[in-house]
Design a protein that fits this description.
Layout (H helix, E strand, L loop, with lengths): L8 E7 L5 H12 L4 E3 L8 E8 L6 H5 L3 E9 L1 E3 L8 E4 L7 H9 L3 E5 L8 E2 L2 E2 H6 L9 E14 L2 E8 L5 H12 L3 E11 L2 E2 L4 E2 H4 L4 H7 L1 E2 H7 L1
Parallel strand pairs: 1-14, 3-12
Antiparallel strand pairs: 1-3, 1-15, 2-3, 4-11, 4-12, 5-6, 7-10, 8-9, 10-11, 12-13
């Protein structure tokens, strides 16, 4: 069996807003000349936070790591709905927000805790007949989406000053936090969309252990090797 190298494993990246998850993969591949690079769970371009990047033979563990539960923090704006369920989309409805306290908001959020059949947003990478939904959405085409079973462990708002609420959610893989924001707005009757999102944890890994992308791209290969979580340690955590 071939010995593992210092670049077989994973590195934890704190993704900035702007680049796609694939952009991060490409930047690391180009900078360090590593043939096999992948990520474990897509973050939307404007989302920030923990992105697990697998390198070399570490890519064999990507599916296992992708299946881990996730923790997110973010901000929802009430009173406005968009077609993408976040601030990147076109405004589809604007409604008054009823007076409510933080406790009342949390009572409504708590109704989403548990097993849910969630309908993914049209603006997503899910494919319909081989075509990503977001490409259909750009053409103004909306198609029926199959609901997916997810589980919400915790969904709680920490601050609320109309019309903005800051929240934290723990959930299973494949959960669309944008859809969660949209669905809460629908439940409240005022509409809502996601304005900020940050992934703070994935499985046993925390964003506090991650390096900002720009810092990683300034490392030498030798410095990167010291930051890589070795394959065997990664497999034990997967």
């Amino acid at each position: 069996m071939q010995d593992f190298t210092a670049l077989d494993g994973a590195i934890l990246v704190d993704k900035p807003p702007g680049p796609t998850s694939h952009d991060v993969v490409d930047a690391i591949r180009r900078k360090f000349g590593i043939k096999k690079v992948g990520h474990c769970g897509t973050l939307d371009p404007n989302a920030t936070g923990l992105l697990i990047i697998v390198l070399g033979r570490g890519t064999k563990l990507s599916e296992r790591l992708m299946g881990d539960d996730k923790v997110y923090e973010g901000t929802i704006k009430f009173g406005e709905a968009t077609d993408s369920y976040d601030s990147d989309g076109e405004l589809t409805a604007s409604m008054p927000v009823m007076p409510m306290t933080l406790n009342q908001l949390n009572e409504d959020a708590a109704t989403f805790i548990g097993d849910l059949m969630q309908v993914p947003p049209m603006v997503s990478a899910i494919k319909k007949n081989g075509v990503p939904l977001y490409k259909l959405a750009r053409k103004g085409i909306e198609v029926e989406r199959e609901p997916r079973l997810i589980h919400i462990y915790n969904y709680r708002f920490t601050e609320y000053t109309e019309p903005l609420g800051k929240f934290r959610v723990a959930c299973t893989k494949g959960t669309y936090i944008r859809s969660l924001a949209h669905d809460l707005g629908q439940k409240l009757g005022c509409g809502a969309h996601l304005t900020a999102l940050r992934r703070s944890a994935s499985g046993k890994f925390d964003v506090a252990e991650a390096l900002p992308l720009d810092t990683i791209l300034k490392l030498t290969t030798a410095e990167l090797e010291k930051r890589v979580m070795p394959f065997l340690k990664l497999a034990a955590n997967a």
